[in-house]
Amino acid sequence: MKDLATLRNPRSPITFLSYLQSQNRLVSFINRGSTIPSRKEYADYLAWAADYVQKHGINVLYDHEVVALSRGKKNSVVDIRCRNLTTGEQKVVRARDIVISPGGSPRIPESLSPIAQHPFVIHSSAYVTSIDMVFKSLRLCRGRQLRLAVIGSGQSAAEVTLDLRSRLSSIPSATRHEIDMIIRKGCLKPSDDSPFVNEIFDPCSTDTWFHMPSDRTRAGRLQEYKSTNYGVVNPRTLEVLHEIIYNQNLDEDIAIRQRSVDPVNPRINIVPYSSILSTSACSSGLSALPAEAQDRDKPLFSIITQNAVSRAISEVRYDAVICATGYQRSFWVDLIKESEIGHAFGLHAGSCSVKLVPIPSAPHSQDIQAYNRELESSSLSHIDENPLPDSVFISRNYQLLPSKFGRLGSMPSALEPRVYLQGVEEATHGISDTLLSVVGVRAGEVVDDLCRGRVENDLMVESKL
Q: Residue 263 CA to chain centroid, in angstroms?
């Protein structure tokens, strides 16, 4: 039920139940006995909803990236320059208001940077689109043992490990293939999706989170609920993974006692308490030749780890590395600070470590000048009179608010278009902000705020006529 629309409008034509009905699978889904769809089905639902939106008049520019934002004529619009990733052609889209919702960018730990650009080092976000190419090359390894590394302890890491085992099973080898799941924790831990804990994802929790008295309180609450979403695995996935590892140990014990042939199924090893000290390419590794033409008689990568308990250091060589290491959500900062509109929010090209500051009493009005006057009157007395350039104010309804001062204390020029953020405000709006849990509700709040502000602005213009 926590889909794109149900919590905002259960009668919406793009709910998950509407999707099931349209595909004649509603009754079959109910008969499954579980309300949790597979990743495959949910991905198809999202594709179906995207197609529905386009068929009903929304122009979506796929395969485009935003390269610049600039002020339009008389500061009344924002010019958005985007580039077609296929043709390289650029175009400008003009908007009265904008919503920035860039999602997350792959986070690659610094220790992996020496090998990060190799095509056989994949972030989990690109796993589905890249892994076939990797295995096309691995099949050329002349029957030798293959060893793959999965770095991470969360849901993606567990699912990738299971899929790799399935894929490796089809590659013949005289010696058993292995998959090492390298984790910093002592063990894989289950996600907490119990009913009371799940209330943290309720829409009303956003208000509670936003109006907490301090950043320290919000940070403490985030730490308290991390077990719902970060570095944890769904209990059902854990059971499947544990059963596989148990059975592989059983098969080995039987083979030893009966002096029979060693098992051939790929082996999964969980390597706990492991910190990656360094990574490097082996001598045959980063060749200038295409991946499929490289000599695959030897592994490509060396990973040196240290056990946090024993302090022992070990080196293992791998044929491919999958990084299930999470995401960073700072693209919006880079986009705005390099643009002409950044100054309005106290950002400049040199801004770093940008911090979102919640302003609970921010007005809904479109009138930016009126808001600046409110700031000057000190009605928001808890705001520093000269905020640092890396502090960006945000309202409960996700609107970025103008900074009273620009860089070096100069007054920023007014920006009439409103700028909203979506999916990157976990620190101010709660742990559900990066998830689908409240996406429909928060999108509705942005739309309501946009419409309310536009009406207020139109009424203001009419009063001046």
A: 38
